[in-house]
Amino acid sequence: MRRRRVLKFFVDGLSWKSIALIGWVLVTSTSSPAVECRPLIEQKCASCHFVTHVCPDLAKKKGTWTWKRTIQSMIEHGTELTDAQAKQLVGCLSKPDQKVLDICAQK
Q1: Is this prediction's pTM over 0.85?
Q2: Are residues 13 and 62 in the same domain?
Q3: I need a labelling partner for 32 at 20 to 30 A (CA). Which of 48, 63, 85, 96 fits?
Q4: How many domains does the chain have?
């Protein structure tokens, strides 16, 4: 019962904007595992221009904001992505691990 009161006090003390910001940070700060990233990158990026566009951009270590713009541009040009896939791609490309980078080494 005490936990509920503490949680209610904490939540009541925050504005809805603060709660939304905390939720957004929690959702966007989790990185996607490479096991899920690699197939998504190969299916959605490599089918059009992976080696010529994505690998050099990965080497430049572009940030989240740049990748969000890139993914939005892809969608505007006809790439079919769900919101979840778009978010996952942004996470995968802005903070690629070795399994994702290995795709570029295979070119």
Answers
A1: no
A2: no
A3: 48
A4: 2
